[in-house]
Specification:
14 helices; mainly alpha; about 5% strand; about 65% helix; two-stranded antiparallel ribbon; 3 domains; single chain
Length: about 350
């Protein structure tokens, strides 16, 4: 209640009183095992699995959170105005030994989940900066080059891939009298087979990694991430799903649908690269600007455009007596050239 009401002064008095009472009970040598197993007051969990520190982050109480972080610090040494301060990482960040989905969330995880920039404090910024330079940057760069390499291989396979099946080419030749003599050489066929196999293996490995993350975090927590993490998860899962769908369609000989989904897969794959260039100061602001334009201004215009399009499409369909889009197109194209009568001949 003190955290919810944002009362740090009363919280300090209550904590000091609790420590005093606990010292008195320890002096009396209480042998009750249950009382000794109770955690400290500031480490206890409520019904939602939150401590006072994580509860302040979950409620968005920036002042209370900053005060609790400052209250937990320990001064190692001081010399004049210069002091060395240590901040405990428990509750602030995830413990390396806690790798189950039942563990309580840390402050940083809650901040990412809530996407609340007001909770950022110098302590959290310093922690994130050190983690980025020590661990995350190397992992991020490795994943970036792996994703770029897989996309380049995917680009090479789609370039070497035949644009149509033998049946479609024969039908085109019968209609136009033109026969295509373009065939893949032995080396190109080998490169295509090798690249195609690498793309499938890469999609399978990526799918296995994402399934492992779903099992570790839980299916609901995996999709409840906000911001760029959620968009990255959606793009990766969609890319892998489309790759496997193209293979299934290829096995059944559905060339037309395979080509359409393959084109959509290319857009998803290269769109995922925005996720990797977003953290950098050189390109990040432009990615965020484009994202806001697409999902704010252009989305509003698209909604209004679809309303007008649906209304006029229905009106033309009624006026042209069921001839639909074909009748409208023929009428608009030929109206300026010939006297076209859309009504059927009696």
């Amino acid at each position: 209640m003190l955290v919810i009401s944002n009362l740090p002064e009363i919280y300090t008095k209550f904590k000091a009183r609790w420590i005093e009472q606990r010292a008195i009970h320890n002096d009396k040598n209480i042998t009750d095992s249950k009382s000794r197993e109770l955690p400290e007051l500031w480490n206890r969990l409520n019904n939602d699995g939150l401590t006072p520190l994580t509860l302040a982050a979950d409620l968005g109480e920036a002042k209370m959170l900053s005060w609790l972080l400052d209250e937990r610090k320990r001064t190692l040494w001081s010399y004049g105005v210069v002091s060395c301060v240590a901040h405990p990482l428990n509750q602030l960040d995830i413990d390396f030994h806690q790798d189950n989905k039942e563990r309580p969330l840390s402050v940083i995880e809650i901040m990412i989940k809530k996407n609340n920039a007001e909770l950022i404090s110098p302590i959290i910024v310093s922690l994130i900066d050190k983690k980025w330079r020590s661990f995350a940057y190397r992992i991020f760069v490795r994943r970036f080059f792996m994703a770029l390499l897989s996309l380049l291989v995917f680009l090479a396979t789609t370039t070497l891939r035949k644009t149509g099946s033998e049946k479609a080419a024969s039908e085109f030749g019968e209609k136009t009298g033109i026969t295509s003599s373009k065939h893949l050489s032995v080396s190109d066929q080998f490169l295509y087979s090798l690249g195609h196999t690498m793309v499938i293996i890469g999609a399978a490995l990526r799918s296995a990694y994402e399934i492992k993350e779903m099992r570790r975090l839980g299916f609901s927590n995996y999709w409840q991430n906000s911001g760029s993490t959620f968009r990255g998860n959606c793009l990766v899962c969609s890319f892998c799903f489309c790759i496997f769908t193209c293979e299934i369609l290829h096995l059944f000989g559905m060339q037309q649908y395979e080509t359409q989904i393959l084109a959509f897969t290319s857009l998803i794959g290269w769109g995922h690269m925005f996720f990797f260039i977003m953290p950098f100061q050189f390109t990040g602001p432009f990615v965020i600007m484009i994202y806001k334009m697409l999902f704010n201004d252009i989305l509003r215009f698209f909604i209004i455009y679809m309303i007008f399009l649906a209304g006029f499409a229905q009106s033309f369909c009624i006026l042209f007596n069921g001839y639909g889009l074909l009748g409208v197109t023929i009428h608009l194209r030929l109206r300026s050239y010939i006297n076209f009568d859309i009504n059927p001949i009696a």
